[in-house]
Amino acid sequence: MNQRTLSRVARLAAIGVASIGLIGLAHRPEVRPAMRTLGTALGLTNSCPFGYDVIASPEQVARARRAFSASHAGSVPAPTRRQLGLEVGQSTRAEVAAWAATSGVACVPQRDPSQLTCTNLPETSPALVGAELLESTTWLEFDEREVLARLTTVRKASQVQVISSAFSEVVASLGSAGNAATRREGDPSAAFLSGGSLRQASAEYRFSNYFALIRATNVGQGYLLTEDYRAL
Amino acid sequence: MSLKHGMLPVLCSVALVGSGCGASTTDTDAGVDAGAPLGPGASLKCDSSGKNAWDTYGVNAFVAVNEAIFANVGAESTAHGTTNLGNSFSKIGSGTPASTADSAATFKGKLAAFLVYAYGGPASITYTDHVTYTGPQNMTGAHVGLNITSAQYDYFVSNIVVPALTSNGVPAGAGGASAPNDVSSCFAPILVDAAFKASIVGK
Q1: In terms of residue numbers, what domain contains B155?
Q2: CATH number, position B162
Q3: Are A120 and A136 in contact (CB under 8 A)?
């Protein structure tokens, strides 16, 4: 890469990721009025075009979940929907609170009271136990019955082998529990992931009552493992 | 296109991001008009073509990816609220309201124009709504006070943007001419730049 190219690339701090940048930009005070009009045009009651400034009503959320289920459900029920000590579609908020208390997990409520952000989750994947993680965050979402509807984790490590192995272990764990992947994409090997930024592997699971998506991604300054489990 | 006065400098600044983005009459990048300003991705080379992303994929693909990003984000927000993508978006609405003529199409058009410019395309485009939008936009400082976390940023890139690219035909193979990975070669550098992320996260 020549010097001119390096210089241009170095300007990225001021331009950056277009979508993230413009979304963030869209929430500056100067921009809000435009976003409010946009939100109105989209049928939202406030101005964020993605609706993030609105706490959706239980009916809206339920409708959105049904739409997701319709497009992502498989034909048979999952043998198990239990992950990380919790079960989507089954664990109640009270049970999650008890689990957090006994596990040493710290959860913080979000602006939408149906959501929690949790840290310090005990690791169940051998590759992650004892590993030095750059990030470890879990997001929990409850439905209108106060039952856990979605569990999403984000773990990041500087070593590709940690995430590569963790991905394989999670997939193997899902398989040993009877959950077979509906779709696999990319290559989770350390050699592939480390070969370039945004290289990615994924495993998707579609059941009539359960959706799971596991991704390993090279995010440039580290390697990311995301696990997304949803009750349908 | 009518814009609130206060929004104009922010959204529609035509100030190029540093002279480094300016074109040189000796620039030999294929497909870029001599003398036109160049985005930071103009010199990146896609595995599949040896050309930058704009020259490789063209306007239709950029529109499709733009729409896919919106679709992916929309699905996250309406179904699952703000958590995965950040409570930063909840900041909006606490200021003084004012009228504006911007529509959903305008917002999409502006994002598309930025993407096109950033990846080697022209400094302005006419979007599907037949409105012309400017690409170069000053993003510095746009995220102050939004408290975006590193996890949310990484989640967005890996679960929103990358799928938008691959679902629209951008290859993500092992690399090289035989198994090109254009996600890595000509899109990723802009998306994983450490300095840019640091300017967004935790502000």
Answers
A1: 13-18+51-200
A2: 1.10.490.10
A3: yes
Closest CA to B59 of B11, B128, B10, B148: B128
| pLDDT single digits (tens) B123-154 | 999 888 888 988 876 555 556 666 788 898 89
Confidence of residue A120 (pLDDT cuts 50, 70, 90): confident
Report the alpha-carbon distance of residue A128 to residue A135 in Å, rounded: 12
How long a stretch of residues is chain B?
203
The partner residues of A147 in beta bridges, in order of sequence, read A92
Q: Measured between CB atoms, does A25 come within 8 Å of chain B? A: yes
Whether B7 maps to a domain, the answer reads no
Q: Is residue B150 part of a domain?
A: yes
| Contact in structure between A5 and A12 (CB atoms under 8 Å) | no
The DSSP H or E segment spanning B69 is: helix B53-80
- Total domains in chain B come to 1
List A150's β-bridge partners, or say none: A141, A230
Which run of H or of E encompasses A133? strand A133-142
Beta-carbon separation of B81 and A137 below 8 A:
no
**Å from A140 to nearest chain B CA?**
8
- Using DSSP, state whether A63 is helix, strand or coil: helix
Of A227, A187, A188, the closest CA to residue A211 belongs to A227
A–B interface: beta-carbon pairs under 8 A: 319
Give CA–CA dist B71/B77, Å, rounded.
Answer: 10
Question: Is there a contact between B195 and A13 if contact means CB atoms under 8 Å apart?
Answer: yes
Interhelix angle B53-80/B104-118, rounded to 10 degrees, is 140
Name the closest residue on chain B to residue A35, using Cα atoms: B102
Residue B32: pLDDT over 50? no
> What is the per-residue DSSP string for A202-219?
EEEEE-SSEEEEEEEEE-
Q: What distance in Å separates the CA atoms of residue A122 and residue B101, rounded to the nearest whole number?
A: 50
Q: Which residue of B has its CA nearest to A66?
A: B79
> CA A14 → CA A37, B78, B89, B199, distances in Å?
27, 30, 20, 8
Lowest mean pLDDT among B6-10, B20-24, B31-35, B143-147: B6-10
DSSP string, A31-50: THHHHHHHHHHTT-SSS-TT
DSSP letter for B184, please. Answer: I
Do residues B100 and B11 make contact, with C-beta atoms less than 8 angstroms apart? no
Higher model confidence: residue A81 or residue A7? A81
**CA separation for the pair A208, B8 (Å, rounded):** 48
